[in-house]
Amino acid sequence: MAATTVAAFLMAGIAACGQAEYTYVRDREGTTYFKVPSTFSKVDSSKIDLLLSGDHPNSETAKLRKQLVWSTAFDQAAVPGVDHLLGSQDPFVYSTVHLLTEPQRNMVSLNTMRDFILPVTEQMRQAYTQRLTEAGQQPTLTQFELLNDQPIALDDGARGVRVRFNYLIGDAIQTFDQTAYLDRTGGTVSVLLIRCTADCFTKRAAEFDGIAESFKLLKMPG
Q1: H or E element at residue 60
Q2: What are the b/e assignments for 153-177, b being 16+ CB within 10 Å?
Q3: What is the SS3 assignment for 172?
Q4: CA distance 217 to 210
Q5: Helix (H, G, I), strand (E, B) or coil at 32
């Protein structure tokens, strides 16, 4: 089904049912889709992008990143905030789509996708801890636990991986569920990250699975 047809179908469903139960999200190019409950509030994901990249907002690198990277974020807290990406009592959803440069295309792998937002593989966790230790800083992310790691094969040669893991952040164990896809051309990585406390994830696992399973790559016309 063409992306335009999908969008029309979704909009018709929303109009027929009155207030929408979900917020339906597509990236800038219209190739990646997911939905979140309408009880989530959208927040400014650009601040998260800068935090994760470490770029200065006025740098040329940051300007280039805006052309290559799309992102969005949703928070269910009573007072939403981008700082809830790494911790609060309420769930948080962050998604990003990266157009890869030629060097990045040659290097991308399932492990690259596992580590796309937070360190998951042993190599990246060790590098993260070493970097902060050498800088005289205490790591924010500690006591890593891998809960699930599932490679995904998609149509037309696209592939991906879904990982779920815990980190102790402050005095709370936070659970992260991340799905990442590399499109069939090898040129775009799409990522969806869901976070909540471990207790929250246990109680609302079916709801969060629904969000994760709605995360799709759309086939475009042509």
Answers
A1: helix 60-68
A2: eeeeebbbbbbbbbbbbeeebbbbb
A3: strand
A4: 16
A5: strand
Can you state the percent helix, strand and coil of the chain, rounding each to 5?
35, 35, 30
Sheet holding 32-37, edge to edge: 22-26, 32-37, 216-217
Please spell the DSSP secondary structure of 199-214, one letter per residue.
HHHHHTHHHHHHHHHT
If you ran DSSP here, which 8-state letter would residue 50 be given? H
Q: Amino acid identity, residue 15? A: A
User: 124 to each of 1, 39, 62, 77, 194, how far by Cα in Å?
Assistant: 39, 34, 23, 30, 20
Token pair of 143 as six digits = 């006591």
Query: Per residue in 97-156, pLDDT tens?
Result: 999 989 899 999 999 999 999 999 999 999 999 999 999 999 999 999 999 999 999 888
Mean pLDDT of 30-38: 95
Q: For the purposes of burial, counting CB atoms within 10 Å of the CB of 65, is it exposed (0-12), middle (13-18) or buried (19 or more)?
A: middle
Which neighbouring-strand residues pair with 166?
145, 175
